[in-house]
Amino acid sequence: MGLRALTLAVSITAVCAASACLASPNSEARTVSNGDTALTAAVASPARSPQNVARDVYRHPQQSLSFWGLKPGMAILEIWPGAGYWTEILAPYAKATNGSYLAAVSSASQTLPANFSQTSVHGPISTTEFNEKSPPLAKPGSVSFVLLARNLHDWMSTPGEPEKAMRDFYAALKPGGILAVEQHRADPRPMKPDASDGYMSTAVVVKLAEGAGFKLAATSEINANPKDPKDHPFGVWTLPPTRRSAPSGQPPNPNFDHAKYDAIGESDRMTLKFIKPN
User: Distance (Å, rounded) from C-alpha 91 to C-alpha 102?
Assistant: First the structure.
């Protein structure tokens, strides 16, 4: 999938006829005009890893962050940053704009990759903890921008954890703060129980966020991939970048043919912007 035009589609796919989707006002159609030079510099930084830069064609970082409403000086909280695709952009951006970057990891023993200790590039990076039993993520009302990128499906098999996540995000955000969501999208087919293949229904995501008090402000097709049939032998992880070739926990299958899945590229994704009401 090539780099999409910056025109943002504004309607959730028609299969979201569930009330949670239909009750989402204020979706908007507009062209992103990004004059944030610090964001441009962070995305173009030579300090980013080549592996992450190669994924920009699927993740559209500058367009996505502009759509979500990232602004200079924000207090940013990223949930489960993993290998740091977004960290490489958000931490330097926060440093350059006198904001702050906080990473929520899955346990107290987890650490970010060693390269994020370069304070000259990334600034000071603080960590907090999020899991089904974790305490509050941050001082209530202290965060401007929460990024939840392709993690919500990980919690669907743990009763109560998705709801706790949304409550924790809501509590951390200041009034008017933004919850930015990027998530593998099951639509138009139904979501599998517990999102076991990694794909989630837009209606379910919206219902979870609205259940915590968030309001859906806008939707975008920036990260859509119409080539993704969402029917893969090892779920979304069959696709790049994971390229799984055997069931989870089993050794890779050296005879697995990745060509079909590599041609699809990364998954079809919803891109949603929620606001904590004032």
Answer: 8
Instruction: Considering only the C-alpha atoms of the chain, give the largest distance between any 2 of them, rounded to a whole number of Å.
Output: 55
Give, as one character, the DSSP assignment of residue 55: T
- Domain membership of residue 6 (yes or no) is no
pTM of the full structure: 0.88
- pLDDT tens, 191-247? 999 999 999 999 999 999 999 999 999 999 999 999 999 999 999 999 999 999 999
CA distance 42 to 38: 6
User: For position 193, which CATH number holds?
Assistant: 3.40.50.150
The vertex-94 CA angle with 92 and 95, nearest 5°, equals: 60
Is residue 78 situated within a structural domain?
Answer: yes
What pLDDT is recorded for position 35? Answer: 65
Span 115-139, average pLDDT: 92
Alpha-carbon dihedral of residues 261, 266, 270, 273, nearest 10 degrees? 170
Its domain, for residue 239, covers 19-275
The answer for residues whose C-beta is within 8 angstroms of residue 46's C-beta and 6 or more apart is none
Pick from 152, 153, 5, 21: nearest CA to 67: 5
Q: Residue 178's beta-bridge partner residues? A: 145, 275
